[in-house]
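To whoever picks this up:

The parser on our side crashed when reading a file containing two proteins. I've narrowed it down to the boundary between the first structure block and the second sequence. Both blocks are reproduced below exactly, byte for byte. First block:
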Amino acid sequence: MAIELVRAMPEHIPQMARITYEAFKGIADAHNFPTDIPDVNVASMFIEMLVTRPDFYGVAAVEDGVVLGHNFVQISDPVAAVGPICVEPNRQAKGVGRHLMQHIVEWSLKNHGPMVRLLQEGYNMRSLSLYAALGFVVREPVVLMEVIPASKPDSTTRALTAADLDACDALCQKVQKASRKNELAAAIQFGPAMGCVPFGRFVGGPLKAFIVPGFFGFSAAVSDDELLDVMQEAARLSPPPLHRTLMPTRQGTLFPAAMRRGFRSIKPFNTMSIGPYETPRGAWTPSIGY
């Protein structure tokens, strides 16, 4: 029976969660890097969020009623953020991943807009080659880093509220060259219930920096120091799993400044894109999407 792509549904979650855990662990173990998904329970919570949120579109590759893989795209804002794409380990390198990725890219361009982006694990030559063949261009080298929490409270940093959205979006568009307002609004609304509180740094009134902490977060700031300060204060106030950030290494002085503060590099990534792309300028960090 031919492989069929169907809309990802709640009944697919158990199979997709297992595949996610095994696929992430398999590629990480093969290259002696830590996995991003520590167990099946975390994978299940993650996949359930992707399946049930209206700002995600996802498909499962199914053969004879068995899920072989899946792919998702976040469509909260103008940029479509692809991933995670995962394939059953014993069916990898057999065309399933290409089928899933090609479908999501085509669907995004047709139904959402011309900007499609993703984050690719830099040591995974198979995915790098596939994405390049499908038209993605490498834009920024990125490193996953362990953040050193601040040693004392910072009175200029507080939790963001919905009233801060316009200021954060203006800063994000100035630095990242893209609006992520809806993504940030969801983080402000739903993040605290999961222990992920977005923070802003306000000095003398105006917003200087904001961050959604953790592997799935992003940030923008008026300077390197402002960003690193809010990043470290957010780590001080957040649980250890959120003491991680993705940091661009090609531009400016942010990465060296983080290293001087004792941050630890964990593993490499690349941001990749299809369609219009304007290079970010200033102090910023991407999410796992872009």
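<<boundary where parser fails>>
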Amino acid sequence: MQTPLGEKSVTAREVREELHRVMSQNATFDKKAHDALLIGTTYLDTEDGYLVRVDPETNYWKPMISTAQAYASDPTLQLGGYHCYHGTTLYLDGEPSGVVFFISEDARKDAFTEEETMLAELITHLLSGEVEHKHYETELTRRNNLINILNRVLRHNLRNDMNVIRGHVRLMSDQLQDETSGSIALQKIDQFMNLSQKARDLEKIVRNNAECAERNIITLLKSSIADITANFPSASVTLESDEGATVAVLPSFERALYELIENAAKHGGSPPNVRIAVESLPKAVEVRIADNGSGLSEQEQEVLATGAEAPLTHGSGLGLWIVYRILSTHDGDVEVMTTNRGTTVTVSLPCRL
């Protein structure tokens, strides 16, 4: 906008349209904020515009963006020489967190009009959304970096160290001839290493950019059943329906089936009895996995349904997290029904026309 200061050759509506155009452009936060402040200085007939963060406890003002060529680290140090000021409080998460203000050395002849004040408030409102988005991106980047660090430690350091510990525990168990204690220790180590592997698998699933392809559900189930019966020889796993249902899925969908069947075989009755059925519906394919165990806890059902956990109420591992993540990428639904005879997990996968 090239409107000279002090000359209102554009209407308020045109200014608002230009402001929304600026805020919707594909540009950096600094560029958007600077252009928005420039629009404000032009329309309000002021020399400079500032966007500052204010610490409510210390009242310290930290400039974020300004139209001024150069400005001090604390704008409050400059305001003594200015006789024109218009400021609007910026709110983040409902709390006052900054100010958007426009200033000039010379005083205005007339007070700011209601229309000018509304424009300044609109600029502040739009900038508050941009500030929140910028903070969200910064926090997301920080958390992702932390996750990457933890995954790297879990993937390399801890797993390698646990392999060393496992070898020494086995050696000590043989030397002390204490099979019971050695067996318990080795079992816990194996559980930890399995959890570590699932954490790595979950990371790969999250980062996977593969595309959907038509797959036969029965073929996927038979592959998972073969692996699980080999790992749990006492478990009886039967596929009660041999219907050839085909649906578009990601390569990771087979992993979701495996985790659900493995969970049923691992936590089933004595001996575990797992029954699997497939049904083709008009707009979906359903896979039902039933066992004769004591049932999933409410916390584990919550993980399957929403992927949510609380610090004091969480699932026992990452398997159900993997299932939730995979099903959510397929827009699939999961339903859990628990009775005194066992648990039935029903996965509904929409058919993509």
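After patching the parser it read the second block fine. The radius of gyration is 31 Å. Helices lie at 12-24, 29-44, 114-176, 179-207, 217-231, 253-266, 298-306, 319-329.
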